[in-house]
Amino acid sequence: MDTMDQKLINLLKNNARESTTALARMLGLSRSTVHDRILRLEDRGIIAGYTIRLNADYNKRQITAHVLMQLNPKFADQILQSLKKMPLIKAAYAVSGIYDMIVLVKAETTGEIDKTLDEIGRMEGIKKTTSSIVLSTKFEL
C-alpha cells in the first residue's frame, strides 16, 4: 500500500459514499485509476466493507454502559452468539482480571439499557455482572 492508497482510504473514511469521480479529482488521478485502486484494496482485504458514520449529535444523545461479566467458560461461545444478536450491544471484549468480558451497550434511554442488562443477566453461564453508565466522554480518538 502506497501513500496514494492511504490518501484514498482516508477520503473513504470521511465519506464512503463519495463518487469515484470526486475521489479522482481530489487525488489528481483518473477515475479508472481510483476505481482500480479501490478494487485492489478490497481484493487484498484492506477494505473489508463500507459503513455509516452517525451524526455527532445523535451519538452524544446515546447513553453508554459498560457491563463487566464473569462467565462460566463452558458457555462462553453460546453467550457470545447471544450477545451478537442483541442490537444495543456494540462491542464485546475479552479481558484479563476478575472479569472475563466487557460489553459496550448504547441506547437512547436508561430503560432500554435496563432491559438489555436483564437479558444479559438471564443468560445461562453468566455468573456475575457489574454495570457502569458513562456520565461523560472526556475524549475519544
Structural summary, described in words:
The chain is of the alpha+beta class and 141 residues long. The chain folds into two domains: 3-43, Winged helix-like DNA-binding domain superfamily/Winged helix DNA-binding domain (Arc Repressor Mutant, subunit A); 56-133, Alpha-Beta Plaits (2-Layer Sandwich), CATH 3.30.70. Helix content is 43%, strand content 21%. The chain has a four-stranded antiparallel beta sheet with strand order 2-3-1-4, covered by helices on one side. A hairpin with a 6-residue loop joins strand 2 (89-94) and strand 3 (101-107). Helix 2 (20-27) crosses helix 3 (31-43). The longest helix is centred in the N-terminal third of the chain and has 13 residues, at 31-43. The two termini are 24 Å apart. The mean pLDDT is 93.
Strand content is 15-25%
Task: Please tally the β strands and state the result.
Answer: 4
Q: Can you list the strand order of the major beta sheet?
A: 2-3-1-4
Identify the CATH class of the largest domain. Answer: Alpha Beta
Report the sheet with the most strands, covering strand number, pairing sense and barrel closure: 4 strands, antiparallel
Helix vs. strand class = alpha+beta
Element order: H for helix, E for strand:
HHHHEHEEHE
CATH topology of the largest domain: Alpha-Beta Plaits
* Average pLDDT level: 93
* Whole-angstrom Rg: 20 Å
What's the overall geometry?
elongated
- Classify the oligomer: single chain
Kindly state the percentage of residues in helix: 40-55%
Instruction: Please work out how many helical segments DSSP would assign.
Output: 6
CATH superfamily of the largest domain: Lrp/AsnC effector binding domain/regulation of amino acid metabolism (RAM) domain
Label the CATH architecture of the largest domain.
2-Layer Sandwich
Number of domains: 2
Distance between the termini: 24 Å
Low-confidence parts lasting 5 or more residues at pLDDT below 50?
none
